[in-house]
Sequence to fold (393 residues):
Amino acid sequence: MSEIRVLDERTINKIAAGEVVERPASVIKELVENSIDAAATHIEVEIMQGGTSFMRVTDNGTGMDKADIEAALLRHATSKLRSVEDLTTLDTLGFRGEALPTIASVSRFSLISRKKGADLGIRLTVVGDREDFTEIGARPGTTIKAEDLFFNTPARKKFLKTTATEAGRISDYLIKFALSHPQIAFRFISGGKLVMTTPGGGDLKEAILAIYGQETADALLPIDFAEGDTKVTGFVSKPSCLRSSRAWQSFIVNGRIIKNYGMMRAIDNAYRAKIPKVGYPFAAIVLTVPQNTIDINVHPQKTEIKFADEAQVFKIVCHAVQTALEGAEKTINTAAAPSSYVAAPVIHELTLPEADAPQAAPSPHRSSSDEEHVSVYAENPPQINVPVTADTS
Fold:
């Protein structure tokens, strides 16, 4: 008898979940990417206890009918690819077709979706291997809820950080999504409290203002540079506006938030001799390149991409940032004090104002302990204060 056998579907999903779903933030990332690809203009994310007990993502996108939902729960099922050749021209965020089945395999999963033009929506509930479909009244779009993450894989749950840290990771993802898609209005609720909201008017500077506050917005320098078929836009901060880590640096390539050390080094090189050795400027760099010059299939979670010419990207980004800084220096020098006087740079840390948005409606899952406020960043400098439940880990 052969010692080699094909794994059953349930085991396959659990293994895939190890690549796609590392923590609550991974779930939010996958679901929000699907909402963006569904042409949503409003996306709301609500979590409890850092996402470990409750996560819900609601959008007003195109929605799905029963046939679409059934297909979406199959592994490697996607609406974004037709053939292998599509990988070189793909401009959507999600495409692997593993998000929903893997999330459903490690949580108590439910979905409500109504396709635009349909009279009724469809509700799907998944517990273990059982799937239940019901027709219900619903708004156009999709709402996905994942509760008790890793309830059936307790060993995975032990590797999660504190609820404050997990909430911070989710907050960071949503900030990046809001910056990369300023045309979408985002709303983030944690522990029953409204934490972040963006206008969705399509203006990147308005999104930065909504997230980081007026002081940061006042320190922004615009970037608008093009070379050949590559374009760099966005904003960087004045050399006097620094943070102690790269938490406030975002790199967006063709609408996708990515990590790229070449672009990070380009920022550092452009600011060389303008800032102290310790400190990082704010940056929201939007790079637009031909789709066939990048490979987005090099990382299981699609957080990194490969450029056909890394050196050229470094040079263009560095030059774009240097041009923005030089333009600001010329403006300052024109209106400066007498040339014999040179002002020393002011280096300071920004403190975000507390959100004064109205309190969100109480969640049915809310408990009295949800009122406690702790910082969302246990490992990184604080960005915003996220209310979460007291950590019990």
